[in-house]
Please model this.
Amino acid sequence: MARAATTSDAFNAVAEPRRREILNYLALQERPVGEIVAMLGLEQPSVSKHLRVLRDVGLVHVRRDGRQMLYRTNAEGIRPLHEWAGQFERFWEHQLARIKERAEKKMEKKTDSI
Amino acid sequence: MARAATTSDAFNAVAEPRRREILNYLALQERPVGEIVAMLGLEQPSVSKHLRVLRDVGLVHVRRDGRQMLYRTNAEGIRPLHEWAGQFERFWEHQLARIKERAEKKMEKKTDSI
DNA sequence: TTGACATATTCCTATATGGGAATGTAATAT
DNA sequence: ATATTACATTCCCATATAGGAATATGTCAA
Model:
């Protein structure tokens, strides 16, 4: 089997750096494709394809306005990702606590030797 | 250009569901490859390859213990992902607030009509 | 209706898988 | 030294891109 399709879920969709850029760009405000093209410096067809992927996994919303298509980020779609990563928060905090602890012990030793 | 390598960064590495399973499994405790194989129900070579990817992007740590290789999740590596997704938290909260608001207005109307 | 503008889709190609099978390697047991 | 155990790597193949080029589609203007 080959790699999973980027359209399979949000995790695959955001694995592409350009798509993360797009999501950041469209988070504050909806924008037409042309502006996204200008912002990314990619060809228009490439951008349209990235937008298609994002749309298929529900990471952006679209609406037509005349000839323009206005896209904006659907933050809700990013939530599962945040929650999955958040499961590990207590572990990295624990790691940091240990590092800090060791650093403090080192300081004590230094102080003792003065 | 083809798709980015899974070894390019943590985002690509966790796009694979099996690798996310592995990270969850190894978060609490280090484990030898054999146990991961049993847990996933995949062939050992496949698991070794997934572990290799995770190692290359710094999402797991390894140490040898006799003939066994003990792997464990490096939570620190998942942090950038959590932080990127976290940027959107205020947006989905805002969306939820709007939904709640509308629901409340609906309730008011209902109450009025009673 | 015709032309122009804004996007989307299709075609083509090089590349990077992910899994299974076979093989290689390191460490322990006898 | 040799067999065995526990993994890692290599080989092979079907599949899914991501980008560029060309083309199709949809909407508005004159």
User: Anything to note?
Assistant: Strands of chain A lie at 31-32, 60-65, 68-73. DSSP finds six helices and three strands in chain A. Helices of chain A lie at 10-13, 17-25, 33-40, 44-56, 79-86, 89-113. The interface with chain B takes residues 3-4, 6, 11-12, 14-17, 20, 23-24, 27, 73, 75-76, 78-79, 81-82, 84-89, 91-92, 94-95 of chain A (CB under 8 Å).
